[in-house]
Amino acid sequence: MATKHEQILQYIDELPVGEKISVRQIAKDMGVSEGTAYRAIKEAENKGYVSTIERVGTIRIERKKKENFEKLTYAEVVNIVDGQVLGGRTGLHKTLNKFVIGAMKIDAMMRYTGAGNLLIVGNRIRAHENALNTGAAVLITGGFDTEEQVKKLANEVELPIISTSYDTFTVATMINRAIYDQLIKKEIVLVEDILTPLDRTIHLKNTDTIEEWHKHNYETGHSRFPVVDSQMKVVGMVTSKDVMGRERSLPIDKLMTKQPMTVNEKTSVASASHMMVWEGIEVLPVVNQSNKLQGIISRQDVLKALQMIGRQPQVGDTIEDIITNQFEEIHSDIKGEVLYRCGVTPQMTNYLGTISYGVFTTIVTEAANRVLRSYKKGDLVVENITIYFIKPVQIDSIIDIKPKVLEVGRKFGKVDVEVFNEGIVVGKAMMMVQLIDR
């Protein structure tokens, strides 16, 4: 039977899009405490089908599909620009497909404005009205208000009209940044994208005997199964090593590995792969916040996902991408050793105008990654990095990075990295990494 928390989540999920939600009302409707209702609403917000907006309240919004992640709802725009909703609150759940900056005459502005757009404009009442009539929402910059008739029209057509104290350029930058951040997040493959769901996951109960393990092993050919209690909470993991040579009548809970390592659906595949390699695990149970089984992932699933990530084109560049894209490979004439060259741009510096510690770490990690790939195809996970010497390197400098492989085996590598500026050593690092075959 579903818990009260799960019942509330299901209740919220079934509410119509645009419905206003309150802790008190949910508590009353579901017969629970306000604390329980509050926790469920917060989880619904984390899952992306509820949004809380200052001075508006909490509303049910459309749950976004992963492939449509770069689209924003008007409710999210309100949060991004710290806006105030002047009218059309019932349309906050709707998704905008593009925004138009109204820095032109009204006739020209309307040629670019259509249904599903967001017009960003100042104190121009006629533009507000025309945009709403074409099916576009309005974001008024500079902290201006609008006329009552425009607010009334916004309520009628169910399109929000929002006011923000920021200027037009700042608002456009903030919205662009939010879309870009979501594009970067879209690229990160999560456990939920690759897991074998619960309805296809073979699991054992802690009251089962070894006989049940043999039965599932014969039917599926698999030898590792999660063990759950009566509430479907993961309490153990059982493998062929555990049951080998044991009486078939023995209970599973007497020999299973208790408190096994688990991951949740929002864990990144990269993090899960690190865990599996580090601990030598073949199968990981996937659980929710209540530790209830949601499915499993295997090492094979993870490696396939890592291969898929490697083949996909980049969409949104992180700071790390900006740094590593500048790497230029240079071969030394004297010893034939590989050198990498990189320029220090403003994005790579701290408030003093010198290269930041985090950027330096990224640079030495990327150099080690590239040099190890010449020895072994695959990915690496940094196990230990020691930066034992670093000097300030100012903006617009050119640095040379010289990685030296000290040791490389089947699963581990050891690399020493030196960084030079104008022939002078400005940084040194030692790295131990785990190597993951593809």
TrEMBL record:
Keywords, in A-Z order: CBS domain
Ranges where the CBS domain occurs: 195-254, 256-318
Coiled coil stretches, renumbered: none
Gene3D superfamilies in alphabetical order: CBS-domain, Hotdog Thioesterase, HprK N-terminal domain-like, Winged helix-like DNA-binding domain superfamily/Winged helix DNA-binding domain
Keyword Cytoplasm recorded: no
InterPro entries found in the cross-reference section: CBS_dom (IPR000644), CBS_dom_sf (IPR046342), Diverse_CBS-Domain (IPR051257), DRTGG (IPR010766), HotDog_dom_sf (IPR029069), Ser_kin/Pase_Hpr-like_N_sf (IPR028979), Thioestr_dom (IPR006683), WH-like_DNA-bd_sf (IPR036388)
Protein name: Predicted transcriptional regulator containing CBS domains
